[in-house]
Amino acid sequence: MQNARVSVNMPDVIRHLIDRGNGASVELFQAQPESETPAGAILFVHGNQGGRLIGAKEAVDTGVLLRFCSRLNITAAAVSQPGFGASDGPADFCGPDTQRAIMAALSFLREQPCVDPDRIVLYGNSRGAIASAMVAAQVPDLRAVILRSGVYDLKAVYESSSKGLRWAIEQEAGLTSDAFLARSALHHAQKIRAETLLLHGRLDERAPIAQAERFSDALSDAGVPVMLHVFECGHDIPREYAQTAQRSFLQRMFDPVVTYH
Known about the structure:
Elements: E1 4-7, E2 13-19, E3 25-31, E4 39-45, H1 57-61, H2 64-72, E5 75-79, H3 96-110, E6 115-125, H4 127-136, E7 144-148, H5 154-158, H6 163-172, H7 177-181, E8 195-201, H8 209-221, E9 226-231, H9 239-254
Parallel strand pairs: 4-5, 4-6, 6-7, 7-8, 8-9
Antiparallel strand pairs: 1-2, 2-3, 3-5
């Protein structure tokens, strides 16, 4: 499938359609700095959108891509999960097709002349954090991962979640042991290599704080550098809280002067 490039309202943001690997389309929005010197890149993976299903365009509409691109002088991109935006569905609740879509987006970014492939950060929010954590277990060369308001043991959360969330999991993923395992990074923590920043609300009503605490401990036990920031809020972490926690982390990840091992 050829990449389709379509200009959107903001002239500095380009929309691509890339191949997920099986002929299915994946929508990706990208903003890049004017510098010709290869720099880092960050890939955002959205969460649930309350039925709007606009996918990665959310990061365009809110100015996230341009803000990160300009402030950090990096390529900032966002990918639509299957069933969201223009990405082919159906949705599979953070499962293998969603993970393949994210990995296709990462591969696309690595091939861009403006991107240093050794400095790519994956940033998943809520539903996107579930899938991004699983991708981190399959892609060993990520520079870092930021996971915000995520669930890392889906079966444990399913058993205590709201009726609406249980219905979504049942419809999109099913309730087999394999389905839960394929969406539960807690059980794959030993495969993760990338430095990880966890952002979580202490009062999160959808993803209990114990999820982040257990995952942080598992990563630490596996020898992964990990930091957990807990905020006095619910599932939706205020922008200013997240910015304070992630600013120095991102500056360190994208510093071209420092040599990382």
